[in-house]
Write a structure and sequence with these properties.
This protein is α/β, with parallel strands linked by helices and 143 residues long. It has one domain: Rossmann fold. 29% of the residues lie in helices and 24% in strands. The chain has a 7-stranded parallel β-sheet with strand order 3-4-2-5-6-1-7, sandwiched between helices. The relative contact order is 0.26.
Length: 143
């Protein structure tokens, strides 16, 4: 069963996704980051080239020829991926294919509407029996 983590009080979804991707990569996990649209995918793509400051996170789009060997995949409209270690969702709704992944990370920013949507996703997973861990990014031990 997919292990689900909710990261709340994020100041910015894209930076949090970069942080989580970097951390996962250091642990040997391969990552798929699902964005809600092409513009967000483009912004994330640019940010990943600069994160962390002293390096970058190797990444590509899900339809790239080298996607199968790239640690981080960015996608906004597909449902077929070369690996299923970790899914980071930047979307407002639950993704229909999330259960194919070993781990799912949901990011909720401080915006009240995003919190509402995050609570809906949390209930969806909880009501289906998934164990959910919550991490408050305002707390020092979260980093």
């Amino acid at each position: 069963m997919t292990k689900i983590d909710f990261y709340s009080n994020s100041p910015d979804k894209l930076h949090t996704a970069c942080f989580l991707s970097h951390k996962a990569m250091q642990s040997g996990l391969r990552v798929v980051i699902r964005t809600p649209d092409a513009a967000t995918a483009d912004a994330l793509d640019a940010l990943l080239w600069q994160y962390p400051e002293t390096a970058f996170i190797p990444h590509c789009r899900s339809n790239a020829p080298d996607a199968a060997t790239t640690p981080v995949i960015i996608d906004h409209d597909g449902e077929t991926f070369p690996h299923n270690d970790l899914l980071i969702s930047l979307c407002d709704e639950c993704l229909p294919f999330f259960s194919r992944f070993e781990k799912l990370k949901e990011i909720v920013i401080r915006d009240e509407n995003d919190r509402k949507l995050g609570r809906e996703r949390f209930r969806f997973y909880r009501d289906r029996g998934y164990e959910i861990r919550t991490i408050d990014l305002n707390k020092p031990e979260a980093a």
